[in-house]
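Workshop exercise sheet. Pairs work together: one partner reads the sequence aloud, the other fills in the structure field after running the prediction. Swap roles for the next sheet.
Pair: D.N. / O.F.
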Amino acid sequence: PFISFMDIPEKMVAPVLAYVGHSTAGSYIIGAMYKGGSIDLYVAAVAALAGNMISFPMFLLRSSMARNIAIYGTKLGTMHVMITLTTGMIARFIFLFMVISAFRYL
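Structure field:
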């Protein structure tokens, strides 16, 4: 549903999932597909942003949750991570919306 919302072809599911696993792998696959001519610039940009939006919460929870709980305690540390996650996702969604809008009106 998330990928169909952004008009990304089905062949981009694997690169987006690879991006979730490791951003370098996803970027490499997306770049190779773009260089090979199988996708255009719009699909490459939106797929990279979609992969980033999906991987950001996983990365933040994996890397920051333990550190923030150790520093601030369970309640405040969890609240800090959730605020960071929320603001980061809002910023990424706004940027993705701007990219989609810019390409649609070109």
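Discussion prompt: The chain is about 85% helix and 0% strand. What would you look at next?
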